[in-house]
Specification:
Blueprint: H1 3-14, E1 21-22, H2 30-42, H3 44-47, E2 50-53, E3 60-62, E4 65-67, E5 69-72
Antiparallel strand pairs: 1-5, 2-5, 3-4
């Protein structure tokens, strides 16, 4: 899934930049979500705008760490 599409889904889920969005709400199978978000987390140009957290809900293994939510900075639009 391209970054632009992930950002659009994030905005629809969170209602704006800087708000928590459950990873489960992106509509991806667990393995796909882990692969997609893991790849973005490994890319410095993308990962600096993503902030993962573990709150309550379905946990996803993002590069070996259990995460339930993501927050995105508005500056991510500069690389779309």
């Amino acid at each position: 899934m391209p970054l632009r599409q992930i950002v659009e889904k994030y905005l629809a889920i969170a209602g704006g930049f800087g708000f928590l969005a459950p990873l489960a709400d992106f509509g991806l199978a667990q393995a796909e979500a882990e692969r997609v978000f893991g790849a973005f987390d490994e890319d410095y140009h993308i990962s600096r705008f993503l902030h993962f957290s573990q709150v309550t809900g379905t946990a996803y293994s993002i590069n070996g760490f259990d995460q339930t939510h993501v927050t995105m900075d508005a500056e991510i639009e500069s690389i779309l």
